[in-house]
Amino acid sequence: MTTSAPAAEPFTTKADYAYQRVKELILSGALAPAAVIAQAQLAGEIGISTTPLREALRRLKSEGLVELDAHRDARVAPLTAEEARDLLELRRSLDPLAMALAAERRTKADIAAIRAAAGGLRPLPGDPAYEHLLAHRRFHVALYGASHNELLVQTLDSLWDKSDRYRRLALAEGRSQAARDRKSAEHEALVDYVIAGDAERAAAVMREHIDTSLGAQAVRRLRTEDGEDGIDV
């Protein structure tokens, strides 16, 4: 497991630093799903004691990324078909709503932020670096923010970290160039329709975006592994 130093950030406490570092390791795949977390070793690698690390692990447990048992042993939360399905169902409902509201409420500042975030998008590789996933997230966050519904934005943001782990799983299977091109076209359409104020089309594109997403691909893969192939997602 590599733990290269992160870019400098103004962390308030060692526990905040530990939280961000361990979260990055989980989302980047350096700490794999269901992996046991060797707490003393990890604390040494990221330059802290086990006390702030345990505080960070409790926080990550509350977000569903880590599991802790009664003996304070920790492991990365496993990937499951049930959680992947739950995430997909929520996003099928909430993402189109966010796009419709964004098209109705976007401001000039929102439009500038959306265009800037879109400029940083690149097709996700099979083994994406954390930075690749962050760029994808920034794009969607810019769109969500234009909805000006803070509770909706917070809810979608809380789903994103869990969803990224399933995206990584699906990306490992590979995607055709046609699928990559389709996703790029959907991103462009989302920008165009939100900026144009077309709520109906923005929501429709996002619904299609979710239905053909890496999250949907992950549901199919996990259900196949569980012997549930053929069940609609």
From TrEMBL:
<dbReference type="InterPro" id="IPR036388">
    <property type="entry name" value="WH-like_DNA-bd_sf"/>
</dbReference>
<dbReference type="Pfam" id="PF00392">
    <property type="entry name" value="GntR"/>
</dbReference>
<dbReference type="InterPro" id="IPR036390">
    <property type="entry name" value="WH_DNA-bd_sf"/>
</dbReference>
<keyword id="KW-0804">Transcription</keyword>
<dbReference type="Pfam" id="PF07729">
    <property type="entry name" value="FCD"/>
</dbReference>
<dbReference type="GO" id="GO:0003700">
    <property type="term" value="F:DNA-binding transcription factor activity"/>
</dbReference>
<feature type="domain" description="HTH gntR-type">
    <location>
        <begin position="12"/>
        <end position="79"/>
    </location>
</feature>
<dbReference type="InterPro" id="IPR000524">
    <property type="entry name" value="Tscrpt_reg_HTH_GntR"/>
</dbReference>
<keyword id="KW-0805">Transcription regulation</keyword>
<dbReference type="InterPro" id="IPR011711">
    <property type="entry name" value="GntR_C"/>
</dbReference>
<keyword id="KW-0238">DNA-binding</keyword>
<protein>
    <submittedName>
        <fullName>GntR family transcriptional regulator</fullName>
    </submittedName>
</protein>
<dbReference type="InterPro" id="IPR008920">
    <property type="entry name" value="TF_FadR/GntR_C"/>
</dbReference>
<dbReference type="GO" id="GO:0003677">
    <property type="term" value="F:DNA binding"/>
</dbReference>
